[in-house]
Here is the input.
Amino acid sequence: MDSIPPHNLKAPWAGFDAAFYRARYAAALPDPHATDAALEAYYRTSGGALGHSPNLFFAETWYRAAYKDVADAIAAGAYPSAFAHYVTAGFLDRSPHWLFSDRYYLACHPDLTRTRLQEAGFVNAYDHFLSAGDREFRSPSLFFDPQMFAAARPDGDFSQTGPFTTFLREDATAGSTTRLSWYFDPEWYLNTYPEAASEISAGRYSCALEHFLFNPTPLHFDPSPYFSEEFYASVHVDIIAAIDSKQFRNGYDHFIQFGVFECRKPHPEIDLAAYHRAVEVQADLQNGSHRDVFAHYVAHARSNARRTPQRAISEHVTRELFSARARHRRPLFARKKLDFSHDAPPAISVIVVMYNQLDLTLTALDSLRRNFPGAIELILADSGSTDESRHVERFVAGAKIVRFNHNAGFVESCNAALAHVTAPVTLYMNNDILLEHGAIESAISRLTRDEKIGAVGGKIIRTNGVLQEAGCIIWRDGGTEGYFRDGDPNAPEVNFVRPVDFCSGVFLAVRTDLLKQRGGFDPAFRPAYFEETDLCIALQNDGYKIIYDPAIMVIHQEYSSSDSTIANHMMAQNQPKFRRKNQAFLKTRYPANPDLVIHARSPRGTAKRILFIEDRIPLRHLGSGFTRSNDIIATMAALGHQVTVFPIYRPVENLLNIFGDFPDTAEIIHDRELPDLQNFLEQRSGFYDIVWIARTHNAGRLRDIIEAAARHLPASRIVLDTEAIAAPRDHARLLHRGQKPETPLKTAIETELRAAELAEKIIAVNQQDAAIIRAAGYANVAILGHAAPPRPTENNFAARQGLLFLGAIHDADSPNLDGLHWFISQVLPILDPLLPEGADITIAGYVNRRIELSGLGQASRVILAGPVENLAPLYNRHRVFFAPTRFAGGIPFKLHEAASHGLPIVTSDLLATQLGWTSEVELLSASTENPAAFAAQLVRLYTQEPLWQSLRESALSRLAAENSFAVYRRQLDAILKDVSP
Here is the structure.
């Protein structure tokens, strides 16, 4: 029999399966009833040469067709069969079956590195898949989704035999139309191509999918109604040469590997780029529901065809539902009281005015009690109720109740209740609301963290899911407006903290000492309306801020206590009083004009309004300069400036991943992109004091837009933050590849910086880049590097093990990817025998899903960790950080970050120079022209504790002096003052 790898005699694919062989090749056998031993002897002497497979898991004829060198070797007599090649050599890097891709499996499961497979006793990825991965529902190829197969077999038991093995044994037959993935439709295929069905019936193929993947004329067959081979080649002519040279089997092969990630059109009637723009699609992809936009489209094809615009929800209906919900909860409150009793001093006093509507009141109080576990001083002001509200103490314990024998109105009731307040924070809260997660805690925190904040309000959402207000505007004529009324509560404009003119009494938290100084609301505004507006003006006149905080979210049944006609009458009655009292303040407000809403949404103050434009929303895990942009935005916000972040490319991340990465005072425009920018600038004409453009290439992209919108912008206050000068890096990349650059370096730099003339100030990340910019003729250059304060991890030298690389890989030209390939191919073979056992090499960080690292993972010792959310344990566990970068621009933040966590570094001479650090002092470096020297530095640092400790301490001292947040803040503040004095 063909030889089996001696180090693993139990690989599921390595043996001869007599039962399978007898059933599959009965017609070709001289004696189908022969013993198992006789069948094995026949396979060894004849069957293999005839193209027979020895077991279910190896596809002999496919393997020969897929690997021409194997077919040639068999023809030359080097191997008796394809199986003989696989078990002796091919198992290291070849795929054995048309439904299993070694490359795909390793790429999808980065935990399966060569080191980990060997440690677990698996000879290769296929061995792992058949032994464990199949039952773990791991996917073996793009064309087999185990979850989809299992869903088609609801009664199947896959605990012993996984979906893949079950399919091969039971479903891979001529009549099978089981759908295995979104990338191939077997039923459509057989109906569309009867010749394929005929070949399957003749036994030349086991099923429709095998025919599609294996037939000799791959350009003649489409996989589903959603992809046209003819169309794809006709509109994407750049792939034709690659198909002709056999780099791709057909257009579909190119599409599923590359074209889908570029949103290329797969069919004349399918616009993937437009489909991909949908927020819900991007959210699904970000959450991993599908590999790509095409699979998402196919999976939702039927619902896409039926999709209709979302209809507005009738507020009349939702108000009725809100009230009905309150009514239906009566038995709950009858059986169990709401308890506001407390022994500890209350953190907040809550004043709720009641006038009948007990059901709504109890529901609001239940929401309050559930919202905050701490001590609440509840003060109920019963403004002459005539229903069960008169007996509210039957249902609420621990509340102070202030009663009136008449309908006293909101102002008088609140002022009477204020006399009973003892907590440092007083909350005026309507009785027709529901509080969302964390509202009370957010209000208390906001008021107590800054003594200059006098009052806080939140995002008020009406029962139909649209906004009532996100803070409120006061116009010069005394009129008021809820900002973004009728808008989307998730819109960028309403999801950041900002000062406002006032917040309504639906939910208004105020510092108690300030309230008591004034005796509460001005009685002149009895019974209600304009009292909270007047109070907020008084607070501002005394130097306090009114803050809108979207973390305070409230659902409100608007006008539940009185109809809108009565409310409008009371507003009209009180507005003249309000205007007369606050004339001086009103003169400082904008005239009522829809075009001025963006200006009026926040008092002007001394803060600068900064528009920050980046390639993408700069989430920290993206690395590659985005971390630095994130730090700049955070520092601008910490300096008190109002920052708007606008991305060139529409974000693919969902809101859950975006908001947590930025200060809550930053406005993150997550629903627009470059084509929307000009309209955005026109809508915000004159609003911004500074426009900060991140990355030099974006100045070129934005030049036409900025010139077209010049009258809307601060023309002399545009900053270009180069982040890194790319031309030297690009030249170095070409030279490392043995290619000659098309243009001289000086010309390339001048071309790169051509659009810099737009900017008043140019920012460089280090002295090297600053010198390059000045040499190109631009004098007004400032330097702003990285914020990387020391935060050393705890483990000592002995408690650490292994080497760490952490860096982002965004594209195939990434310096990080190039450096890793050089390290694996040139350094690791030298390094491997010099390192002690257990010194694994971890590669971590963001990787674009179009980039495959599985090849790196097959190297000895290498572990692919992928993106890691909490980096501290990673830094704490490893002993040495390495960065083998051969070409790069700017400053490598990954080195600052590693050093800040107390992890000593070995890097290239290039990065050491860019960083401005000295080898043997703050780090070790070596030339990337000398792999042995790089390996020697790694061994030194890994094995010499005194050297390790010295470098660690020196790097931390350097960071404390140059990269602390305080230093960074001073540097950025000076730049902003210089731009906009």
